[in-house]
Write a structure and sequence with these properties.
Rossmann fold; three-stranded mixed sheet; 245 residues; alpha/beta; single chain; Ubiquitin-like (UB roll)
Length: 245
């Protein structure tokens, strides 16, 4: 064995020793977890989240499985995302992002509270007092459980429309109606105008037209002219407008 080979051999042995020592040190009692903290939670208690994480007693800091713990916590219908963060030498942090109420979907005898992704985070016998979009779905959803996404495609379209409206325009909306079979969206205003929005296409063009419809509706109110009955913007070109005259 020449000198170069000896040096490489010794370096390999030294590196192996470092790796072995590092492994045993990282799994030693020095890194035994003694503190678990939860951050980002407001409606769910720290105790409940830690219970869901199912972190073993006397676990070492580097033995905690990030993926399994995050997935366990995300099973809670109110948790959108969970992340495990290690803090040397003995602290685990569970960072969570909670789902928040965005809209309400009425069923036959209760209301579904959903977030921006359409996930059901709660159920209520009464309509929430908070001003949030009202969304009706045809046919009415059946047997929705907490944590289940309600008609994701339709909810995504409605969210895009809602985000494209100004605060004043949002206040003119009575409710959104989504037909599952045709994937068609209809918007009803507080003045009773039916806006046939259609499917998820030409969104920028339709949102511009929608703003014009709201302005037209306000102008009619201010001047005491005839009322809008419906506006059909489902097809390319100028929308079809029908008034009481």
């Amino acid at each position: 064995m020449n000198n170069t080979s000896r040096r490489l051999f010794r370096a390999s042995i030294f590196l192996l020793l470092i790796i072995v020592c590092g492994y045993f040190f990282s799994h030693s009692s020095f890194f035994q977890v003694d503190t678990i903290v939860v951050t980002g939670n407001s409606t769910i208690s720290q105790h409940e989240i830690i219970d869901m994480a199912r972190i073993e007693d006397e676990i070492k800091l580097f033995e905690a499985n990030e993926k399994l713990i995050s997935q366990a916590v995300e099973l809670h219908p109110m948790i959108k995302e969970a992340q495990l963060v290690r803090h040397l030498p003995r602290t685990l942090e569970i960072k969570v992002t909670e789902r928040v109420m965005w809209a309400v979907v009425p069923l036959t005898d209760e209301f579904l509270i959903i977030d921006t992704e359409g996930v059901c985070i709660n159920k209520s016998l009464q309509f929430p007092s908070t001003e949030v979009p009202l969304i009706t779905i045809e046919p009415v959803p059946q047997q929705i459980i907490l944590g289940q996404a309600v008609e994701p495609g339709g909810m995504d379209l409605i969210r895009k429309v809602w985000e494209g409206l100004s605060d004043g325009e949002r206040q003119q909306v009575s409710d959104f109606h989504f037909a599952v079979a045709s994937q068609q969206l209809t918007i009803y205003t507080l003045q009773g105008t039916e806006i046939k929005f259609g499917i998820d296409e030409r969104l920028e063009e339709k949102l511009s037209t929608l703003s014009q419809v709201f302005q037209l509706e306000r102008d009619f109110i201010d001047t005491g002219q005839d009322d809008l009955i419906y506006v059909d913007m489902r097809y390319k070109g100028q929308p079809v407008v029908k008034t009481t005259i």
